[in-house]
Specification:
globular; alpha/beta; about 260 residues; about 40% helix; DNA polymerase, domain 1; disordered N terminus; binds xylulose-1,5-bisphosphate; single chain; binds magnesium ion; Rossmann fold; 2 domains
Length: about 260
Amino acid sequence: MTGPPGGGPERGGAAIFDVDGTLVDSERHGHRVAFNRAFEELGLPYVWDEDLYGELLHVTGGQRRIDGYLAGQGVAEAERNQLGPKLHARKTEILQQMVDEGAVEVRPGVTRLLDELGAAGDWRLAVGTTGSRGWVDRLLRRLLPATTWDVVVTGDDVTARKPDPEVFDVARRQLGLPGPEQAVVIEDSGEGLAAARAAGMRCVVVVNGYTADHDLAGADLVLDGFGMPGAPAAVLADSHGTGCEGILTADVLRILTQCPG
Ligand code: XBP
Ligand code: MG
């Protein structure tokens, strides 16, 4: 692969991908449906509609999301401590089933970018998600079988959730990167962006229907999709002048890992 346009660096770095909303469009018709089915199975009266779920998504981590919601419904802490883990475990099983049934889809352009990074031969690939290992591994195996991940960090491997940077700090350590500047994070949300920035990493945000109105100040590049040849995404912000024309490529990521400051 020749060097990127604009005389960018020859060597790649590490690309750390968020999962929900980034690699896959998993929230509106995936997790949200799984939560509602778990509520119904346990005889609870709760239904998270699409608008309410968009608000609840600001609480990262499904178990925390359930706990915060139940607290808001006036459920006492002792009962929440019983009910929350049970609900979340069942929801995770339901989501795994939904993944197996093809209910969750990879976002357009993701496979193209991952193939490009793999073919370049000098990129390390990682996942940094708040989601549970229970479904993450299964989803990566089933939906992105051609991608070899050097590191996969999930919500089960950290104590704090995004916007805390722990998930990306752990990914950097496991990748053996000397510093955060060799890594570029690809995220979909304000919480993910804040976590990446707190970890000292460059961050590309690929917004989706739930995150287009998030506070994305400080993102190094913002797109409304990964883009495909002939079907570029909209470039919503390009603070380093990468020259990205709506298709997120390995070259664009390469340039971002070398931007000063
Ligand atoms: C998004 C999340 C996750 C999912 C639900 O994670 O906050 O909690 O909404 O998955 P990310 P779990 O964008 O970091 O991938 O119920 O397994 O947490
Ligand atoms: Mg996300």
